[in-house]
Each structure stands twice: as structure tokens, then as C-alpha cells.
Design a protein that fits this description.
Blueprint: H1 2-25, H2 40-61, H3 63-88, H4 92-97, H5 102-127
């Protein structure tokens, strides 16, 4: 009986030391905070960097030089989306053709609604674009 108690005690000591050793080997979480930590120096540097990047982007796109061309593209794009909305109304013919089949009629309505919604969102996005 005494030998079994000694064996159990030795096993407990070995398991406990293994657990303590394993836990002490785990890396501790670093105190570093991910992301942007704003200070006056960081914000000034970030502001300067963003200003430079916007200027470089405008220069690479030649916004001042081609502004009229970009405006024409936006205008033509708006006109295209508006004309596509009108042409989508011709999809009503499939609705009329399948009006006796309820399921096909519902599917045609849903397809037309999705198409008109996407075209409307595209036209609105172009309308809200400012140079």
C-alpha cells in the first residue's frame, strides 16, 4: 500500500512539473497594440503623407488636364444607364408571354426588378461622382 502511495505521489509531482513547465514555456502576449495609435506627430505625418498621395494621384490621372473628358465620360455613363433602364422595360414582354404560368411570371418580375435596381444604383453612383 505504501509503495502505491509513493508511486501516485511521484506521478503527481511529474505531471504537475510537466504542466508548470509547459505553461512557463508559452509565449506571453506582447503589449503592442495593433493598428494606428494617434499622437500629434503621427497625425501630422499621416496628414502630410495622405496629402502627398492625393496630389500624386491627381497628377497621375491628369484631372485638371482631362477634367472635361472625365465629365463627358460621366455624362455619357449616366445617359447609358438611363437608356439601359428604358431598354429593360422591354423585358415586360416575357412577363406578358408567361402571365398564365405564375412561377415564370414571378421569376421574370424578380429578374426585371434586380436589373432595374442595379441600373438605378449605377446611374446614381455616376450622378454622385464629383470631380
Amino acid at each position: 500500500m505504501f509503495h502505491s502511495q509513493v508511486v501516485v505521489y511521484i506521478l503527481i509531482v511529474i505531471v504537475t512539473s510537466a504542466i508548470v513547465g509547459f505553461l512557463s514555456e508559452r509565449p506571453t502576449p506582447s503589449q503592442c497594440v495593433e493598428g494606428f495609435k494617434g499622437t500629434e506627430e503621427n497625425i501630422e505625418a499621416l496628414n502630410g503623407e495622405m496629402n502627398e498621395k492625393v496630389t500624386n494621384m491627381e497628377d497621375s490621372l491628369h484631372v485638371a488636364k482631362y477634367k472635361k473628358d472625365y465629365e463627358n465620360t460621366l455624362t455619357y455613363g449616366k445617359d447609358y444607364f438611363e437608356s439601359m433602364k428604358v431598354s429593360a422595360l422591354f423585358d415586360f414582354s416575357s412577363i406578358v408571354k408567361h402571365q398564365k404560368d405564375k412561377e415564370k411570371t414571378e421569376q421574370a418580375f424578380i429578374a426585371l426588378a434586380k436589373k432595374l435596381g442595379a441600373l438605378h444604383e449605377g446611374a446614381r453612383a455616376l450622378h454622385d461622382t464629383h470631380l
